[in-house]
Design brief:
Blueprint lengths: L16 E4 L3 H8 L5 H18 L14 E4 L6 E4 L2 H20 L7 H14 L10 H25 L4 H23 L1 H7 L2 H30 L3 H21 L5 H29 L28 H4 L11 H38 L17 H11 L4 H44 L12 H40 L2 H7 L7 H37 L3 H5 L6 H9 L3 H100 L1
Antiparallel strand pairs: 1-2, 2-3
Organism: Sylvietta virens
Protein name: PTN23 phosphatase
Keywords: Coiled coil, Cytoplasm, Endosome
Length: 674
């Protein structure tokens, strides 16, 4: 695009601190940080020192030196207290991520990857039971939002730098992927209940962005097709971009003016591209326009990542103020055990992510959405955009009659002008014929006693009016054609709603078709069940690892027995690993069943797609007819004004023509008498 419109970004509030028996000056500086990068630096230093303290003093949950730690939970505003120093660390880490998200949403548009890194470390290294705003679901949502917004910033820069169209399309497609993940989390009933009323606002913005950046991706795929001179592909990509942008506009209702301006700007760009491409292809290139699903899908290019957090990095934390405390051998051994747990988690996650990638790619290739796989409910209702037009016409019952009357008046004036011009031409032709007869009779052209005044001027002026009339006649014909095109639709929109609903196409499915649909939806539900179970088992494994603290056992275990103790302790994860393996192994059979069901669904899908296309086309045509009404009335009035003026001029010219022809006839009579 010639410029890069910006969409607003989501940022998170900081948690408020309460009681914690720590040095008051240190505590105040750590929780009342400025909203800038200096504040981020302060939070990192405080986090590191808390980690150094926790590794030496037993201040964890249930330990001897534990003290109450209080912070306010973001969504409810309630104070939440835990006797655990790790809770203080977790809340500081959350605020680090929230502050980075706040800075990232500002005009400079940086820091989103840092926010994602902070929330990722919090999700993977701390218990999720401290408070609602630090649950696994909420943190995963935050991570995907931050990564999506970081990728969105990269997309802006790529467009400003005029990077290659295909790269920009892939970057934009990845923005869509991140926001889809965020949207899945927002649509989860448990997440929605945790977020409260803010869930609806976030979901509306994210859903709108999904369609908007999908439109941007297809716009640049269309530009790449243009560069490759694939003019048919160019049309379908621009058409798809336009369709997706229209969906974004529908979802943007209630969004701020900046969003509306960005959408209008993008509509100008994409609409212009589509109209130009379609016109060029229709009149110049004549390339076949392929179906969108026959073209290769745009695979996202993830070029951002959650920046890792190292709470003990001396470059960030500064010197360890607890360095002189005697180190504890048990904590060293505990760190080794933590690494064994981390290795176990990495191995399991590698298998899960590999299967998830296959599953995601498979589902993307299928393009099956369980919520809209049959889309039958939409045919039971008149769409809101059409209801709005019907309601508008219901309070203007004379719409069609006014339009018809206006066009009838225009036709009458047009006919009068046509008749007058015809009479003038007939008079001139008759005069010319009489002149030729006279010359033939006399055999020569005698000296004329004087030409009739104005006859040449009448002829010249008549030619000018005929030319004006012929040009206007084409416009008048087009206006009548447009009126006839829209008149029936306007009558339909102004009539009973039952007739409008009857005019919209609806699918007709046989019992076999319905059975195919039910089977497909059942298997899609199985896929979702498999996903949910996999996420639940992963969550259980993470929570189990987080709670697994064997420091007490390590204190009484000889160093030579550590390896054996680790092996014994790690066996507690075997059952969960078995369940996960079973879940992962079931994927192949589930996807095979889905493939078979999808093959049977192909014919039904095609039929439903065709009906949906006809339904959308009908709706668009009816809406276009409504929107054309004011333009038709305006042009009709302009036509009446034009022809009324022309009628007056032609009437005067007709009088002059009659007088001039009478004078010419009198002159000929004089010549004959001589």
């Amino acid at each position: 695009m010639e410029a890069v419109p910006r969409m607003p970004m989501i940022w998170l509030d900081l948690k408020e601190a309460g009681e914690f028996a720590f040095n008051a000056a240190v505590k105040k500086s750590a929780v009342s940080v400025p909203r800038d990068f200096e504040g981020c630096s302060t939070l990192r230093k405080y986090l590191g020192q808390l980690h150094f303290l926790q590794s030496r003093i037993p201040m964890g949950h249930g330990q001897d030196a534990a003290v109450p730690v209080t912070w306010t939970e973001i969504f409810s505003g309630k104070a939440v207290t835990h006797e655990d120093i790790k809770y203080e660390q977790a809340c500081v880490l959350y605020n680090l991520g929230a502050l980075h998200s706040m800075l990232g949403a500002m005009d400079k548009r940086v820091s989103e990857e840092c926010a994602a890194g902070a929330f990722t470390y919090l999700r993977d290294h701390f218990p999720h039971s401290y408070s609602v705003d630090m649950s696994h679901q909420i943190l995963s949502l935050n991570i995907n939002l931050m990564l999506g917004q970081a990728q969105e910033c990269l997309l802006e820069k790529s467009m400003l730098d005029n990077r290659k169209s295909f790269l920009v399309a892939r970057i934009s497609a990845q923005v869509v992927d991140y926001y889809k993940e965020a949207c899945r989390a927002l649509e989860n009933s448990e997440t929605a209940s945790l977020l409260g009323k803010i869930q609806k606002d976030w979901k509306k913005l994210v859903q709108m962005k999904i369609y908007y950046f999908a439109a941007v991706a297809h716009l640049h795929m269309g530009k790449q097709a243009e560069e490759q001179q694939k003019f048919g592909e160019r049309v379908i990509y621009f058409q798809s971009a336009l369709d997706k942008l229209n969906e974004a506009i529908k979802l943007a209702k209630g969004q701020p003016d900046t969003v509306q301006e960005a959408l209008r700007f993008t509509m100008d760009v994409i609409g212009g591209k589509y109209n130009s491409a379609k016109k060029d292809n229709d009149f110049i290139y004549h390339e076949a326009v392929p179906a969108l699903d026959t073209l290769q899908s745009v695979k996202g290019a993830p070029l951002v990542k959650a920046l890792p957090v190292n709470p003990t990095d001396p470059a960030v934390t500064g010197p360890d103020i607890f360095a002189k405390l005697v180190p504890m051998a048990a904590h060293e051994a505990s760190s080794l055990y933590s690494e064994e747990k981390a290795k176990l988690l990495r191995d399991v996650m590698a298998k899960i992510e590999a299967k998830n990638e296959v599953l995601d790619q498979f589902m993307d290739s299928m393009q099956l959405d369980p919520e809209t796989v049959d889309n039958l409910d939409m045919y039971n209702h008149i769409p809101p955009v059409l209801m709005e037009k019907c309601a508008a016409l219901s309070v203007r019952p004379d719409t069609v009659r006014n339009l018809v009357q206006s066009m009838q008046v225009l036709s009458g004036v047009f006919t009068d002008v046509e008749a007058s011009l015809t009479e003038i031409r007939d008079l001139l032709e008759e005069d010319e014929a009489q002149e030729r007869k006279l010359q033939e009779l006399l055999g020569r052209v005698p000296p004329a006693p004087g030409s009739p005044p104005g006859l040449a001027e009448v002829s010249k002026e008549c030619s000018k009016y005929v030319e004006l009339h012929e040009k206007a006649s084409f416009t008048n014909t087009e206006l009548h054609r447009a009126m006839n095109l829209h008149l029936g639709n306007l009558r339909l929109l102004g009539g009973p709603l039952e007739q409008v609903r009857a005019a919209l196409p609806t699918p007709t499915l046989s019992e076999d078709d319905k059975q195919v649909l039910q089977n497909l939806k059942r298997i899609l539900a199985k896929v979702q069940e498999m996903r949910d179970q996999r996420m639940s088992l992963e969550q259980q494994l993470r929570e189990m690892i987080q709670k697994d603290d064997i420091t007490t056992s390590l204190v009484t275990t000889d160093r030579s027995e550590m390896k054996k103790l680790f092996e014994e302790q790690l066996k507690k994860y075997d059952q969960l690993k078995v369940y996960l393996e079973q879940n992962l192994a079931a994927q192949e059979n589930v996807l095979k069943a889905l493939t078979d069901a999808n093959v049977k669904y192909a014919a039904v899908r095609k039929a439903l797609a065709e009906v949906e296309h006809k339904w959308n086309t009908t709706v668009q045509t009816l809406v276009a007819s409504y929107e054309a009404y004011e333009d038709l009335m305006k042009k009709s009035q302009e036509g009446k004004d034009f022809y009324t003026d022309l009628e007056g001029k032609v009437a005067k010219l007709l009088e002059r023509a009659r007088a001039a022809c009478q004078a010419s006839e009198a002159q000929r009579q004089q010549l004959l008498e001589r």
